[in-house]
Amino acid sequence: MTQPDSVPRPPRPPSLFDAIFPLVVLITLIGGAVTLFGLDAVSGPVQVALILSAMVAAIVALKNGHPWSAISAAGGRAVASVTSAIFILLAVGALIGTWNMAGTIPTLVYYGIQILQPGWFYVASALICGLVSMAIGSSWTTAGTIGVGLVGIAIALGVSPAVTAGAVISGAYFGDKTSPLSETTVLSAQMVGTDLYTHIKAQLWTSGPAFIIALIVFTIIGSQTEVTAGVETATDLTQLSELFWITPLTLIPMFLLGYLSYRKVPPSLAIMTAALVGGLTAVVLQPEAVLRFVDEPGTATPIVFLKGIWLAMANGFSENSGVADVDQLLSRGGMDSMLYTLWIIIGAVTFGTIMEEFGMLTKLINPVLLRARTQGKLFATAVATAIGLNIFAGDQYIALVLPARMFRIEFQKRGLQPQNLSRLAADAGTVTSALIPWNSCGAFMAVTLGVSTFLYFPFAIFNIASPILSLLYGITDFKIEKVPAVAHLAKEI
């Protein structure tokens, strides 16, 4: 007798092999990409590795009985989760293009060369970015504006762009982590259910010492820096003043961006507005630069100026002065310069989302959590989880939210105040994201500052020191807030 069609079986949970296999594929492919292509790996090969690994994870989910519609929907949610980052990236590309054409970045570089001396340039860069990021609450905006100018100054001064990028990132993330205006700081507190300012106060105990360590290291590096670019620097200054009208008026777009950020205007809207104002500033203050860029000298018509703004936003500004350092500084930006970064972000978050939503990440982490019997092992597991998620999921929000979600109950059971976990998640999840080339933050910093993640990694001192200090605090029980004994006992009962 023929049996009626049965109800579809529910999907099977992943096995340990199911969870490990996509990670092995990812590690193998990324390792192969770096081995074969070196620093050029992030210009396509790493992206291919991420897409192929996401497909492998999807096949595992399919094998376990999940319908393709669910897998496709997960991919859609992955892309939706980074929509804000995509618009910010495109806006930053447009901003760099118009700010170069407007003379905003050249003016910053011109004044910065004369004010910032090589011996203390790195430590000053970290301090400046720390203050700006704390004021506006955004490491990305800080790096995409002040950071770009500082790297340009470094090139003109003859000091290391890689060390400068590390100083910029150190300062930007210190300010971001300790600012009540930062979305990741707010999210860190919300995810564990603690007060925002309680979280920031706890955060200062690791972020403060980590930033001091960074400043000491940058001071030492700066004191040992030998600069032999005196003549070249003078030539760069002369060339900048000949190509642009160097005036504080060109900084209007930068101050506007600072104001909009302070008013909590959404970052993509604030940055795009500043990019458009940069284009208008170029037309008013630097008309010759615009005409030179569109290669239509002597044709100062509204259509030509509109064409210049449009091209600078789309493809970036370019200069051909014959002075290599100046041309390297100015020939940057444009939305199209962000396309490789967008490719890498989409691949990374798609892989991470499929691994998360279909239980593969949980399958990997739960056995480790069960073995974390001491406080030190618990902290080490949380740190490793956050860093691992930055590596394998490719997005700082996943690396911040998942550990907070997964370890919250365990921290409560052990009588640990929630701010311990919020600090730990921020120290290990937020800041280490900039150290991974295929992570959304690492990719953004590399393309924005023009320095490969592999090159600035050793000099992002704050980002390296923060998780180490947070782990040491957990092991030594230093500045670990406990739930009062009575409240803890009541909770257990």
Low-pLDDT residue intervals, each spanning 5 or more residues: 486-491
Count up the helices.
25
Give the N-terminus to C-terminus distance in angstroms: 57 Å
Number of strands: 0
Overall pLDDT, averaged? 84
Please describe the biggest sheet, giving its number of strands, its sense, and whether it closes into a barrel.
none
Shape: globular
Radius of gyration: 24 Å
Number of domains: 1
- Helix content percent band: over 70%
Structural class: mainly alpha
Q: Give the SSE string.
A: HHHHHHHHHHHHHHHHHHHHHHHHH
**Residue share in β-strands:** under 5%
Verbal overview:
This protein is an all-alpha fold and 493 residues long. It contains 25 helices and no strands. The chain has helices at 16-37, 45-63, 68-81, 83-102, 104-115, 121-136, 139-157, 161-177, 183-192, 196-223, 230-243, 252-262, 267-285, 287-294, 302-315, 324-330, 339-357, 360-371, 375-392, 396-413, 418-430, 440-449, 453-456, 461-476, 485-492. Helix 5 runs antiparallel to helix 11 (230-243) and helix 19 runs antiparallel to helix 24 (461-476). The protein is globular, with a radius of gyration of 24 Å. Mean pLDDT is 84; it is low at 486-491. It has one domain. The longest helix has 28 residues, at 196-223.
